[in-house]
Write a structure and sequence with these properties.
globular
């Protein structure tokens, strides 16, 4: 892909993830996090995970774990070798 198209796709998938976190099912951001992690060095995936956790954590209590943040970090970290293989091979 050309650089401009690649950036447009990256922004579009991230925007879909944020829109999905606000207005659609929580599964939409999960799919967007995985898609971003497969194709790009996805700092947006981690930001999206933090956003979802801050939006859904109960106010004032730290009883709940930030599952989306931890999950997005793990997905980005685990998919690094796969992404490297796709992009270089």
């Amino acid at each position: 892909m050309s650089n401009g198209l690649e950036n447009s796709v990256r922004i579009g998938v991230a925007a879909l993830g944020f829109f999905g976190a606000l207005y659609i099912s929580p599964w939409v951001p999960v799919v967007c996090i995985v898609l971003l992690a497969i194709r790009f060095r996805a700092w947006e995936a981690i930001v999206l995970g933090v956003f979802i956790d801050l939006m859904w954590l109960p106010g004032g209590h730290f009883a709940s774990l930030p599952l989306f943040t931890m999950g997005s970090i793990v997905v980005v970290w685990l998919l690094e070798p796969l992404r490297s293989e796709f992009l270089l091979g």
